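Appendix B: complex inputs.
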Amino acid sequence: MALLEVHGLTRFFGGLRAVGNLSFEVAEGEILGLIGPNGAGKTTVFNLVTGFVRPSQGEVRLSGRSVVGLRPNAVARRGIARTFQIVKPFPGLSARENVTLAAFLRHPARRDAEHAADEVLGRLGLSHRASTLASQLTLMDQKRLEMAKALATDPRVLLLDEPMGGLNPSEVDVAVGMVERIRRGGVTVILVEHVMKAIMRISDRVVVLHHGEKIAEGAPAVVVRDPQVVAAYFGRRAA
Amino acid sequence: MSRRAAALAWACGAAAVAALPLLVKNAFLLHVVILILMWTVLGAAWNVLGGFAGQVSFGHAALFGIGAYTTIILFLKAGVAPWWGIPLGGMAAALGSVPIGLICFRLRGPYFSLATLAVAELAKLVALNWESVTNGPVGFLITDLPQLRLLGHAVDWEAKTPFYALAALLMGFALFATARLRQSRLGAYLVAIRENEDAAEAIGVDTVRAKVLTLALSGFLAGLGGGFYACYFRYVDPDAVLNIGLSMEMVFIPMVGGLGTVCGPLVGAVFLTTVGEAVRERFQVGHLIFYGLFMMIVIRFLPEGIWGRAALALRGRRKEAKGVGAA
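Resulting structure:
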């Protein structure tokens, strides 16, 4: 059985259908790439799955249990964590305090939470920035911190919203390595990303969204040659 | 601060508070000190919600008023002695805060603040018009406090010392509650909510529950302050205990002292009460101008508050000392 099932997911904003009848599944241990042109509805899908926005219709199940209608904190407790495209750190707190807050979810005692936070910071290469204020971190480190916070909630599925956006090529390589390590740590990953090089390298499977609908699904190398996908990105004439 | 240093600080503070009435014989000065203690409780009440969780309420007078009315009504109509009535006033305010929170916390930021302002005005209108319970605009007056013997002595309610002891007890409780909150997971979550509410939800913080719980604690402390006010001033009417000015004072005290700190409300209450009483004595007309000027200076030059700045400086120096030691 798939770990995460999305079935018939639909969301209207007024008259605009941001996501329409979207279905896909993610198996345990998989990295699924979610791609599509700007405005395709990728971030909306994340908001729907994590409870930040309620679906107009459709179902989201984790291990067969529906998470639709739960508030974001309850979804996080069930084991679906997310990052934000525009990073949302707790700016006035140190990196360590940021991650400790997230670790509190599974470790009610402060000492245990701090211990777990240190472990996650080490895994993502942030230990040397542990006492730096989140607002003072470089963008790369803020993206790291964003992932560290999500990981510290000990999720089963991690939704990464453009973790590589705004990074330079060598930083992208580092980020790719981090995502792969996260998967090896036993966390299933859904990745929204525009950096194609990265998506191609690490995704097992790709789902392509256009105007909120799924237009293609499959192995990355196959999907990029799909005429519909090329048309969505570059226009009909290119296809 | 290490545990032992914290325990020492608490012990010194308690000793100072216990010694004070032996040193201060002047009734007016003791009155000012009692006011400081009462305002510390009220500042601490606002601080747990506004300072820690960043939820700026302009309606805490409503919670103060619930406490004051509960205590005085229980005393005058049911004969409940103030030392039971004050905690019951706190509990009534905590209970009253739950529906207020469930409604107002649907809004965020300035919209929340405006909603609380409306709640305080509603509370005042209720008190003015619900005459069978609140006596309307006339209010209540306590003429005699009950006879009480403590350690074989009759308590003299005409003196200031019993009220001083009561206020000191309440202040100790308020500061202790704040300190415990700061150490707890809920306290940490409140800081997360203040820093970024969406990010807090994303890491599993039930933000609504955390805010409602904190408002209840805040309401309890504000209600204790209100109950004390009713017993000390022996007079409760809508203008006295449901005044918008009260809500504002409760904002200013932790702001001047240091938002989100344990001792901030105490420091803020010391400065604002002494400055307020000093200028009131000197300039009968327009004393609020000077009070306002003081506020402006503090907010302009010490945005983290007097205690907040002092704590920062202290921590900085300790870090420097550590650095030197390591090198």
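Residues 207-233 of chain B form the longest helix (27 residues).
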